[in-house]
Amino acid sequence: MSTVQTAAPVALRWVGALAAALVIFSILLMTKGANPIDAYQGMWQSTFQRSRSIEEIFIQMSPLVLGALAVAVPARAGLTNVGGEGQIIIGAVAACGMFLLLGDGASGGLILVAMLVASVVAGALWAGLAAALRLVAGVNEAISTLLLNFVALDVLLFLIYQPWRESPVGQPATRELVDVAKLPVISGTKVHIGIVVAVVMVVVVHLLINRTRWGFRISVAGGNSEAARRSGLKVSMLVLSALMIGGALAGLAGMIHFAGVEYKLRPGFGSQLGYTSFLACWMARHQPFPILVAAFVFASLSVAGDSLQLDSGLPAASVNVLTALILIAVLGFTTMRKKANA
Amino acid sequence: MFTRKSSVRVAVSASVAALVLAGCSSATDSSSSSSESDGAPGEGTTAVGFIMVGPKDDFGYNQAVYEGSEVIKEAFPDVEVLTAENVPEDDTAATTMEQMIDKGAKLIFATSYGHLDAALKVAEEHPDVVVVQQGNTITTDIPDNAGTYFGTVYEPMYLAGIAAGASTESNKLGYVYAFPIPQTIANINAFERGAQSVNPDVETITVSTSSWCDPGKQQAAAESLLSQGVDVLTQHQDCTSTVIQAAEKAGAMTVGYHADASSLAPEGWLTGAVWDWGPLYTDIVQTVIDGDFVGSEYNDNFRVGYKTGTNPFVLAPYGPDVTDETIAAIDEAQALLGTDEGSPFVGPVLDQDGDTVIEDGVVPTYAENDAMDFFVQGVVGNLAQ
């Protein structure tokens, strides 16, 4: 099978899936008394014909890409990482801790690197907890990573309610990052460099899982762990490392979102980022490059959600319905492709 | 084949990355403030935006905001009213406000407490747009195009506390709250002090949910309080139906918040603090359109209460179990709150440790109550600081 021949139908299927979702959503729009053409026009104009919105898409995309990669790497080893939500929070918490520790004294480059390292290590260790539970006690990592999300949230709340709280008066939050601890932006725009980090990590992860011995081994372990064990692979180390690398990527996503957008830890920090990334990864069928597309789609939808409210007067939940329809349509079409190729 | 395809992808991505990297620079040079304007901020605006943290039909805070925005629609037929619900209390709020500004809004109501950071950021970037925030307090210098507004909701909560204190049999009241912010702390303290004024043995047990509207946590908090013997439940949440229904189901009494929810609790409803934003919103919009915002009372931390006579928070209708005697006591207390000597916090006020915080006979100001950071004696719960 040639590349050109398969690429075209895949693109066509994506377009078909998106179109199908939009048609179904039109019916919903009409039942809510909105004109679908006006609604889509409003969404298009306020999302893709407004430079601020396009910048916003790239800003929102960055943590989604990294969060989705955090699902993709363990998936290669046959592991389900539902813990992106918590790993993102812990990554941001570690970055914030590093900022509070170094205070205002450190110079710009240094403090950002320190925050980045802290977030990556913390994310990896947090995911490592789930890996260890699996290896030692046989706990399914889909359950443990999910439950650790709630623990991570409690850790965050404890810190911002007590030791790290900016002021006893006011909503619980940490103090704002100083300017040197904020991610720089791409000149002429409001987009921070998180998008560059995200794109670079897509390439790195692609090379890691497709070009390295380790990448080959985790896919063997993920395909058939018994066969892998019998051929002499250390499956436990592969499980541990795959999940920890996933956690590291999610931790990085947390740092990017914290130092690039929020600048403060608040009670709802990163809410839903991990779960949205999880969906984006499934939409991209766990492949690094398609993750860029999926994250772009999710970020665009999120930005377009405002238009549905402001231009068409629809409820805030409408955009979630549209997102779900698109996800189902795309996943449905990809399953068909699998059958056709089998 | 596979190899060739992926090499191309790698090459493309790498070059994209290189291009983007080449365009990088530091954060400092990009913040250009937009739009110079001739007139006063917000003057003659043809659109007004409202952002809400929750759904506009939540039987509570956001519904009250939405109803206020409907009043604006009627009062100013030429003004377009833009509303956005479910806007989180983080940087996304700034994004949504930016979209409203692009649609012509030069006046934005950022209506949740945690929207303040985003509101100030937007105000700074758009000197020609007025951003007013509901319920929080600006503690730094107040810019010419920003302000906060609120009523003294702890005053009706004090009155509701009288109804609760008179009605309880277990002498235990339950309070489900979101965050330990001064507004909430003042509510809880006023509620307890209102109850104490008719029932010295009463205590108020508090549970926080760390969310303005999370029905799952609300249910758990309500059940936990009921299991401790609480027989009157109240709350500081944005969406109120879950706690009220939990109380009614358990046969407990309830004091509502934001909206008259007596229909949800026909048996146990006592009363509640209900919100009527219409008149205040209308006056703010008129002030801004006329170009009179700068230096006005709204270009400040504006507070109204029973003393000024225009409190947007009023007492809800009474339920069946509230006696005439209690109603008389509430009427008397309300009249006193409207005078210079009246306040839910007339000294002596003791904190949980029994230390005197407000000296005997002292009547704290609205501004002082807005900075409250301690629980009074009789409140059970740990105020994290």
Write structural notes for this entry:
The complex is a heterodimer of chains A (342) and B (385). Chain A is an all-alpha fold and 342 residues long. Chain A has 13 helices and no strands. The model of chain B is unreliable at 1-37 (pLDDT under 50). Chain B has a seven-stranded mixed β-sheet, with helices on both faces. The longest helix of chain B has 21 residues, at 2-22. Chain B is globular. The chains are: A mainly alpha (342), B alpha/beta (385). At the A-B interface, helix 3, helix 7 and helix 12 of A face helix 1, strand 2 and helix 3 of B.
Assign the CATH superfamily of the largest domain in chain B. Response regulator
From the 3D coordinates, which CATH architecture of chain A would you assign?
Orthogonal Bundle
Would you tell me the overall average pLDDT of chain A?
90
Q: What's the CATH architecture of the largest domain in chain B?
A: 3-Layer(aba) Sandwich
Low-confidence stretches of chain A: 337-342
Mean pLDDT of chain B: 87
The largest interface is: A-B, 58 and 56 residues
> What is the count of DSSP helices of chain A, taking H or I runs of 4+ residues?
13
Q: How many H/I helices of chain B?
A: 11
Rounded to the nearest angstrom, the distance between the terminal CA atoms of chain B is 62 Å
